[in-house]
Amino acid sequence: MYEYYITRMWHHLCFTYNHNKKLISTFLDGELNNVQDFVLLSPVYGNWARLGQNFEARNSFSGDLSQINVWDRVLSDVEILDFARCKTDPQGSYISWEAGWSLKVVTPYNLSLEEFCQQKLGTSYFWFPSLPVVTAHYICEALGTELPWATSITDIQRLQNVSAATHPDHDNCHFNFWTALTDITEEDVWRMNNGSLVTNIFWAPYEPNGLRYENCAALSRYGVADISCEMQIRCAVCTFKKQQRFSLYGICEQELRNVYFVAYQRVIGQVIFIGYGKYHIRLEDEMWMWVDVVNNVTMAYMEEAVPYFPMGLRWWRLQVPVCDQKEGRRQLTLSPCPSGHFTCNDATCIPIHHRCDLKYDCRDNSDEYDCKRIFFPQDYQSHLPPRLSGDEDLSLPITLDVIMETIAVKTLEMTMEVAYEIAMTWIDNRLSYLNLKANNSLNKLDMEAVRRLWIPQVNFINTDNIHRTRIDEDVVMFIDRRRHKFYIDPAAPAEVEVYSGQDNTLTIRRKYGTVYKCNFDLRLYPFDAQQCEMHLRITSELKSFLTFDPDHSSVQYLSNPFLIEYEVGEVNLVHDNSGQFSEARVLVPLTRRYGYAILTIYTPTLVLLVVSYTTLFFRTAIFDVRMMSALTVQLVIATLFSQVLSRRSIAATLVSASLPKTSYFKMVDIWLIFCIGITFLVIIYHAIVDSVAYGDDPSTPITKVWQVRPREPPMIKSMHKPKITVPNLVLFTKITTPLVFFIFNIGYWGYIFSY
């Protein structure tokens, strides 16, 4: 509620209690501010009602009170808004402000109803005589405002009149005030100290005239004049359109009334900060003191600083323990910045999301100092895994994300070489995180913090050697801000947002290049489909402590799915908790690209088979040509087969040259064996045809004896004629050879396509 209070101003505060819903509602200036559960344990009586809490002086109220009324019913929101806007002035039905009160040690005065709602805070001024321009800028900006500037002679005269009326004895502050203008970055281009461009400047006659030697500006009697920044001192006046609230950070106060202050100027050149609660910050004997005025205790005094004002980050000497720290040096920040902003060391303000965003936003670069992201409790032990709060028997889920960038498969060695990134995400509820950003890349941890953390270890199982996740300079670790829920650390000397480790996660990423062993079944080569896997196992603890999260883990393959030999299918991630440790497998389906094998093995052998088959159409008389052609074809196919088996490929076996030796036949082996067999069959056919056609070799000199017999009848002669003729035999070879080929192919390709 202190966020909305402006001191020295009337506020309308109302509480309502609903007995049926057990809810208490708070209204500030007619608007609902808070609703919460509240149970009354006993009846409420008004015969002992008191204001100011004078039964305990230290907790008594300091301020003005009016319009104290109590009703025996719940007021509506409209009624409360009318009260706050001074439209009505009813008296309470249970306790009335107009009667029944005994006044003790108070000073009463009367106001009309309209005066409660006609409050206007005019412009106020703080005056500081004889300051250099740097100090003038610091003081006004650290007080939450800026130096003035004028657009007309009226603006100048108003400041002069206010100064003369407020401080008649300090005539050096009646004119010649510093302004917020400067052209130090670019000559004749005048800007405010925050960098904004200003054009409508009311220059005095013959001004500006200082060229590059006079880069600051002051208000003279006749207008704005440019003067030297280094050689001049002037009066600084800080103008306030509304009351500025200050916050003192680093004092571990839970009550905001002891954190908030308001600045007042009672003496020209000096400032006093009066807290909403018991604290004051004031200058005593030329030393800034932080004082508990209720208990009359000096909490701390400020060490020397330039300039010597308490606004911004300063070193203080504690006189009493603060935040469990004994007497001694401690940094505190007196900030003029509103909620949602960060206070630079010089007390200027930037949006808090600009802090620690890898670029300077404060003029003194202090927004990039002390950008640690993790707070480690004293009892944190990095060798122990975190446990989920509320259930000690529940395993901590580890989200596994695998991003595969490249894959290289070596069939001969039966390995898969993978370049990939592993990311693991988990919750560590023992930690607290500081100043988290929505962009997780800005929540990166340095190596010092990484080495202090508990990090799960994952082993890569199906590798030649012992491979595991590593923690080294290649690791990238950051915090994922899952919920934008935080509180401000009361012990920090700045606006430090603290996030819970229960609501936000840690993620570690690292790239690896690993060779995984695979088990290939090459029976269907080159029409085979294989599956290789990356076998991962958490070895930090048993599965009763740590498990891979099956619901949120994922795997991606980002590269071209078409490799030299294989086409990569859709990779999958499967989980296995059947053993002692939680395991995950990345399954990589591989389908062989058989086009090259068709081109270099099957097509040449098919052509050779056609050549072999065409020898059956040669004239039977040219036996040598028929046989030599068939033998040449068989020799070529046999050579091709031997090259495949011995892996000494030249051209036709480039695809199969990388095949490992196996104890079983592959489909390509069966094809080549069949090709050898069918060419061998053609050779046999040639021999049979030649034998039937010519019998013994006619070129061999043999003496023949002719036996003369009587002429047989035609019927008897036809009975002795041989049944197998050469044309029939040649026709038989021409039919059976393709028939064998087609029968084999039906079985061969049918077997392949069945898989």
From TrEMBL:
It comes from the Eukaryota. GO terms for cellular component: plasma membrane. The chain crosses the membrane at residues 594-618, 670-689, 729-751. It is a multi-pass membrane protein. It is found in: Cell membrane; Membrane. Keywords: Cell membrane, Disulfide bond, Glycoprotein, Ion channel, Ion transport, Membrane, Signal, Transmembrane, Transmembrane helix, Transport. SUPFAM superfamilies: C-type lectin-like (SSF56436), Concanavalin A-like lectins/glucanases (SSF49899), LDL receptor-like module (SSF57424), Neurotransmitter-gated ion-channel transmembrane pore (SSF90112), Nicotinic receptor ligand binding domain-like (SSF63712). Residues 1-117 form the Pentraxin (PTX) domain. Gene3D superfamilies: 2.60.120.200, Low-density Lipoprotein Receptor (4.10.400.10), Mannose-Binding Protein A, subunit A (3.10.100.10), Neurotransmitter-gated ion-channel ligand-binding domain (2.70.170.10), Neurotransmitter-gated ion-channel transmembrane domain (1.20.58.390). Residues 136-230 form the C-type lectin domain. One of its GO terms (molecular function) is extracellular ligand-gated monoatomic ion channel activity. Disulfide bonds join C337-C349, C344-C362, C356-C371. This is Glutamate-gated chloride channel subunit beta. It comes from Portunus trituberculatus. The gene is glc-2.
